[in-house]
């Protein structure tokens, strides 16, 4: 059966389809955030030391943290939406027309919207214009019923009415150095204003809005959260103890605290785990660790710098008229046209009706470490839409742990259907002291061809060199010498990504100079030059390469050359193949990567690259 239309026009890209996983994941991890910044005179009068041995007010420190956060967010989480709200201000600017609250914004942008380059540039100059355009004023004073903190919570809650709490995280982030905002009041007025403020905060939390506090301590007086904010935040027990430990941290850590809060773990997506017809479990999946990659390319209009949108119209080939309800034509083997509507084509390309479908169970011994070729996600049950999911999940989880089995499931979407393994995990305590709840790890299994190639590498004795006992001993001694205490990958930033983001920032904000990037991955030359490390390194090299080894012999004209031992082994294996016959009959593709490298190593040809590249080098060398 031949098609009259090009398949690329019939089957749209998943990123163009609003029902695709790309859009579902984006909406499921979206965050709506309102920064609430205290602008009372105390925020301007209290100072603290900074990294450059200067002093800054608490207001300046808050502004700098938010500005840095916006720069990070516009690149890493550009579809999140933010609003900036000052309270205890002289001027007012909000939809509710409440006194003491000023919502900062720029033209052509909603109060709660995605951050823009113009917003960041204008916010960087807020300190110069603040006193003239906004002003600072105590909003809670004796003899007045005005309550600026209540008004700020009301305005922020109104801003966060946008969107559903089921598909977006909603938060207020409060910056203040006043631990007792009603301390100047007395009697019934104080009790009544505290009661109404706490009720306003509770109303917001009942709507799924989280309220978080970033307290700024005074040099001579620690922020006492117990005076008021314990009740507002609903802290008690262990949560209160952890928060008090956070309060005790130094002023310089405020930016790091904000970064930690901005990059908290969120739900990746919600899945429906189909056990069999009529019985399903609702699961939330979380990404435990992910590599940070540059964002996807977005095409912009050269005049307005706004994102371009793609529109598709179907035009009749005979009349050139736009078809309102397009149909697709396929020509059958009997020369008769078979008509398919767009809905029918969408149904044809639908691989699975459910997110996740159980196929069966296998012993844990069948699951190898090298089957896990990409980061797994953590699955946890949810009763939000399917009541009873937790009970069914617990029963399944206990059975899998008791029988030492893992579940094999089909994870289907229109672009990349594949098999996955669900491995049950009991409650564990991580080395950092955090407790991970019982759940399941969703592991993406490779295709059968990928497994075959990996298993060949694991079973071929020539693919992996074997170390002697002396070499292992020397290597262990070297590793102990250069071991980093309390090492974490989070301590070091990716210099390539940092430079990439710095270039984007300079272009987006029209900056003349690019921010300086510090490469934290460069080796510590002074530390590596210590006598103990130098001695251990020389002993290791001597045990591996011998006394007559010269480093210059390892490279020729900048190209990697196999070692003498590997080359001798390659020459031995090379003679077992009729390479000319394999090339003439197109059978090189049937060989494994290890076998192809025998030819390359025997002729001093680079052995790096994918299988197609290795075959191309062999054919080029043979003149085929």
UniProtKB/TrEMBL annotation:
Residues 1-21 are annotated as: Disordered. GO terms for cellular component: Ku70:Ku80 complex. Keywords: ATP-binding, DNA damage, DNA recombination, DNA repair, DNA-binding, Helicase, Hydrolase, Nucleotide-binding, Nucleus. Gene3D superfamilies: 1.10.1600.10, 2.40.290.10, Ku70, bridge and pillars (4.10.970.10), SAP domain (1.10.720.30), von Willebrand factor, type A domain (3.40.50.410). It catalyses: ATP + H2O = ADP + phosphate + H(+). One of its GO terms (biological process) is telomere maintenance. Its EC number is 3.6.4.12. It is an enzyme of class 3 (hydrolase). It is found in: Nucleus. Residues 1-20 have a biased composition (Acidic residues). It comes from the Eukaryota. Residues 588-622 form the SAP domain. One of its GO terms (molecular function) is DNA helicase activity. Belongs to the ku70 family. This is ATP-dependent DNA helicase 2 subunit KU70. It comes from Nicotiana sylvestris (Wood tobacco). The gene is LOC104228040.
């Amino acid at each position: 059966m031949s098609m009259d239309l090009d398949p690329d026009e019939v089957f749209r890209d998943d990123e163009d389809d609003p029902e695709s996983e790309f859009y579902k994941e984006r909406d499921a991890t979206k965050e709506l955030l309102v920064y609430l910044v205290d602008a009372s005179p105390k925020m301007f009068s209290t100072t603290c030391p900074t990294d450059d041995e200067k002093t800054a007010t608490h207001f300046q420190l808050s502004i700098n943290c938010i500005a840095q956060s916006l720069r990070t967010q516009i690149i890493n989480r550009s579809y999140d939406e933010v609003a900036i709200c000052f309270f205890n201000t002289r001027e007012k600017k909000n939809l509710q027309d409440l006194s003491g609250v000023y919502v900062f914004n720029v033209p052509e942008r909603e109060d709660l919207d995605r951050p823009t380059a113009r917003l960041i540039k204008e916010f960087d100059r807020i300190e110069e214009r603040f006193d003239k355009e906004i002003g600072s004023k105590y909003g809670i004073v004796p003899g007045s019923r005005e309550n600026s903190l209540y008004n700020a919570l009301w305005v922020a809650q109104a801003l966060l009415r946008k969107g559903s709490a089921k598909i977006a995280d909603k938060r207020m982030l409060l910056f203040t150095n006043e631990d007792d905002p009603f301390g100047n009041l007395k009697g019934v007025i104080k009790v009544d204003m505290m009661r109404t403020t706490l009720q306003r905060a509770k109303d917001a939390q009942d709507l799924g809005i989280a309220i978080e506090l970033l307290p700024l301590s005074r040099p001579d007086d620690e922020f006492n959260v117990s005076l008021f904010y314990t009740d507002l935040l609903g802290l008690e027990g262990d949560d209160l103890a952890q928060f008090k430990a956070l309060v005790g941290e130094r002023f310089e850590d405020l930016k790091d605290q904000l970064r930690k809060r901005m990059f908290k773990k969120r739900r990746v997506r919600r899945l429906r785990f189909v056990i069999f017809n009529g019985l399903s479990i609702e699961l939330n999946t979380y990404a435990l660790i992910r590599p940070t990659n540059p964002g996807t390319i977005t095409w912009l209009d050269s005049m307005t710098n706004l994102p371009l949108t793609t529109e598709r119209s179907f035009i009749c080939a005979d009349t050139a008229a736009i078809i309102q309800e397009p149909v697709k034509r396929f020509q059958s083997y009997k020369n008769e046209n078979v008509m398919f509507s767009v809905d029918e084509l969408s149904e044809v390309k639908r691989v699975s009706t459910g997110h996740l479908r159980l196929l069966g169970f296998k012993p844990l011994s069948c699951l190898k470490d090298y089957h896990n070729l990409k980061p797994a996600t953590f699955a946890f049950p949810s009763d939000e839409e399917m009541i009873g999911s937790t009970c069914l999940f617990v029963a399944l989880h206990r059975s899998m742990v008791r029988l030492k089995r893992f579940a094999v499931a089909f994870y289907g979407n229109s672009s990349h259907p594949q098999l996955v393994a669900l491995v049950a995990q009991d409650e564990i305590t991580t080395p950092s002291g955090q407790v991970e709840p019982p759940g399941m790890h969703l592991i993406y299994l490779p295709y059968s061809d990928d497994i075959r190639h990996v298993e060949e590498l694991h079973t071929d004795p020539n693919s992996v060199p074997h170390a002697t006992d002396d070499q292992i001993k020397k290597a262990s001694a070297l590793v102990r010498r250069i071991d980093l205490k309390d090492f974490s990958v989070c301590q070091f930033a990716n210099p390539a990504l940092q430079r990439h983001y710095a270039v984007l920032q300079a272009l987006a904000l029209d900056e003349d100079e690019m921010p300086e990037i510090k490469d934290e991955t460069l080796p510590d030359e002074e530390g590596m030059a210590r006598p103990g490390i130098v001695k251990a390194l020389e002993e290791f090299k001597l045990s591996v390469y011998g006394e007559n080894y010269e480093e210059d012999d390892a490279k020729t004209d900048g190209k990697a050359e196999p070692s003498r031992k590997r080359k001798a082994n390659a020459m031995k294996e090379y003679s077992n193949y009729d390479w000319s016959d394999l090339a003439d009959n197109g059978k090189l593709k049937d060989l494994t990567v290890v076998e192809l490298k025998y030819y390359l190593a025997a002729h001093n040809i680079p052995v790096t690259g994918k299988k197609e590249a290795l075959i191309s080098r062999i054919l080029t060398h043979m003149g085929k």
